Each structure stands twice: as structure tokens, then as C-alpha cells.
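Forgive a beginner's question, but would it be possible to get a protein, spelled out as residues, together with the matching C-alpha cells, please?
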Amino acid sequence: MLHEDALQVDIAGALAHYAEHGYARLGRVLSDAGLEALRERADDLMLGRVAYPGMFFQPDATTGRYEDAPLGLGWQGPSLDYRKLEKLEKDPRFLAWMENPLFERVVRARIPGDVVLYRAILFHKGQAGGSNLPWHQDGGRLWGLTREPELQLWTALDDAPVGGGCLEVIPGSHWGGLVTELGGVIPPDAVEAGDAERRALPLPAAAGEVILVHNHVWHRSGRGRPGQRRRAFSACYMSADIHCVRKKKAPRVFPAVFRR
């Protein structure tokens, strides 16, 4: 699934940029064949042509507002208007992409020992534009872990231009840690105090490009352009010695991806 030049990528330069700024570009590393395979499978899952027990589905908001996206509904029948699909490690195509040798080199440079997957997730903005995703951080009590993970690899499955659903980040914001103990969406007063609108950096990406994202860097994405879908796949890797601490349900068990 890797582009023919992918194994020549300078990961040292990318990792140094990631450490300093909280994000880094790997460039176009997904091959045309891999891109088509993952696009096809994303739509297979949304349309019910392929199904796996226990997958998570979230329909999108009809208003375009993140706050209005329904929670807890799950699968609502065949539709290309789902906002989020999770547990994609159940699918062989997405699993193959998560376990490719370039990703393994990147992950092992940051995470010693055995590596597991916190989540494998498709974010989708449909032809109506989908919904916005406000400034947020990925971690905190919402994630329910003994230690914060830090590394996500985000793959554009469609073009994600400026004004069309691309990632935006606040470079270096990961150095400040979590804004709230809970994590997730950053409160409006903190967004204003952090001068986020002025400091926002768009990261437009062409289909097949990969971006490293630190869990604590402030990031968001706006709505897509009407008539143009934006599918993006994100995998969050972490050390196998991190455990789930939730108590209302049975603690999660995280699938292994790279073992020593």
C-alpha cells in the first residue's frame, strides 16, 4: 500500500519537527492502489456491504455543527453521511495500512517496547459539507488511561484543502499539556486567551498524504466544501504498558500492532 518512494522518507527530520511543533508532514506515502482500496472499504463499511461486530458509527449533524452530532445511535442503516467510524483495526485493509513498515519505523522511534493501538478511526465530511470539529486535544479523563498517549498518524483519503476540511493546528501548543483535566474540546475562554484564531496554521493535504499529530497539540477542522467528500483516517499508537482505568464498564483491551 506504500508509495514506491515512501521508505526513503526522512523520518528523522519529520520526528524532530513533530517534537518541536506537535505535528509533522510525512508527505504522499499512500499509493494510488492503497488509496483506492481504503476509499472503497470506507464506503463499504458506511453502506453495510462489509460489516464487523462491535464497530462504532456516529451519524453527522444535519446542521453542520459539531455540537449537534447525535451520540449513542450507532449504525443507522446504509448512508454516506456518517461522521465517524471507529474500530477499523477489525478490517484487514485498514489494519495493513496501520502496520505498514514506514509507520512502524516512525512509531518505534517514539515508543519503546511493544506497541498497541488506542483507536483506529475514520473521520468523514460528506457531500453536504459535514460538520466542523472545534479546537480540541485528544486525551485527559475522557480517554481513561493510566498515561497519556501522544502519537497519531493521520492519512488523507481525499484532498483536504484550505476551506475544505483540512486540519488546523496551533504549533507548539502541545508543550502546555492538557488545558483541562477532562480533555477534549477546549473551552472558549482558553481559546480566546490562547489567541488561537491568529495562531491557527492550516495543513492542507492531498489524498494519500500523512501527517503526524501529537495528541495534545490544539487541532481542529472546518466543514468540507459542498459536493466534495473528505475522508481521513487516524490511528493512535501507544505503549503496551498503558492501561484502561474505566470502572463503569469492563476495562478496554487494546490490540497489539508492533511487538519486539
User: Anything to note?
Assistant: The chain has one domain: 6-158+175-230+244-258. The helical segments are 11-21, 32-47, 92-98, 101-110, 188-193, 196-199. The longest helix spans residues 32-47. The domain at 6-158+175-230+244-258 is CATH 2.60.120.620 (Jelly Rolls).
